[in-house]
């Protein structure tokens, strides 16, 4: 049975266009519509609250909830099958949030399409130490569905990743006043190394772009193309 939820109104239309803000916006609405109470955005009281984004209660239980919002399909039109939940596999932040709020760590996975979204809720413990949320149909069928095929009322250009090529010199920058001078994506505080850390951990490019919405898809694409071109010019010794 589908659950339809419309979140668009005059106030939400004026909010941030970032996919992270959109996810938090959706989460608060669908939690309320599914009987959760005392809902509060933890990032509103502490910028970038570690692990958790939203606090809520239901049936006498308290939850600190990490909201993960992704495009349902990648740029190559493949299903985005896993939503990275704990960056680097470190659960310490989740345990800290649990202790700070005297609550149980949970998650909400929000899957975006051009006009609609699906939202699912689960406990961190239900993932059995897996650091990402599986989002294949056989997985989502087992989750508590907060909303399905519900209109979000947003322009898909606001959250879809772009991959247009840019000048390689314009997409990265170094400034000793930003993170001690390490290489970052221009206009952000996101280290370029973080992109390669994600790829090394077998996370798709879309995961990185969704977790760091200040980085444009075109910036990441240009960095990867530049790295490839550099490697292609290296003279390697033949392997015997």
Strand order of the largest sheet: 1-2-3-5-6-8
Query: How many separate structural domains?
Result: 2
What is the rounded Rg? 19 Å
Number of strands: 10
Shape: globular
Strand content: 15-25%
- The number of distinct helices, counting runs of at least 4 residues, comes to 7
What composes the largest sheet?
Answer: 6 strands, mixed
Q: Residue ranges: pLDDT <50 for 5 or more in a row?
A: 6-17
CATH topology of the largest domain: Trna Endonuclease, Chain: A, domain 1
Q: What's the SSE pattern?
A: HHEEEEHEEEHEEEHHH
**Rounded average pLDDT:** 81
> Structural class, judged by helices and strands?
alpha+beta
| CATH domain class name of the largest domain | Alpha Beta
CATH architecture level-2 label of the largest domain: 3-Layer(aba) Sandwich
Overall helicity: 25-40%
Distance N to C terminus? 60 Å
């Amino acid at each position: 049975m589908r659950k339809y939820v419309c979140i668009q109104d005059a106030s939400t239309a004026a909010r941030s266009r970032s996919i992270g803000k959109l996810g938090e916006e959706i989460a608060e609405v669908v939690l309320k519509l599914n009987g959760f109470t005392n809902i509060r955005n933890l990032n509103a009281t502490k910028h970038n609250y570690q692990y958790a984004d939203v606090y809520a209660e239901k049936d006498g239980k308290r939850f600190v909830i990490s909201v993960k919002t992704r495009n349902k399909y990648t740029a190559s039109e493949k299903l985005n099958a896993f939503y990275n939940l704990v960056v680097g596999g470190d659960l310490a932040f989740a345990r800290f949030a649990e202790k700070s709020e005297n609550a149980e760590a949970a998650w909400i996975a929000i899957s975006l399409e051009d006009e609609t979204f699906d939202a699912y809720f689960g406990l961190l413990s239900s993932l059995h130490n897996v650091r990402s949320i599986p989002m294949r149909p056989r997985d989502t069928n087992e989750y508590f569905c907060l909303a399905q095929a519900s209109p979000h009322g947003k322009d898909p250009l606001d959250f879809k990743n772009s991959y247009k090529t840019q000048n390689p010199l314009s997409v990265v920058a170094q400034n000793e006043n930003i993170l001690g001078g390490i290489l970052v994506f221009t206009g952000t505080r996101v280290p370029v190394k973080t992109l390669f850390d994600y790829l090394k951990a077998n996370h798709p490019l879309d995961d990185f772009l969704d977790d760091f919405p200040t980085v444009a898809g075109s910036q990441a694409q240009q960095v990867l193309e530049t790295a490839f071109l550099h490697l292609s010019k290296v003279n390697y010794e033949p392997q015997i």
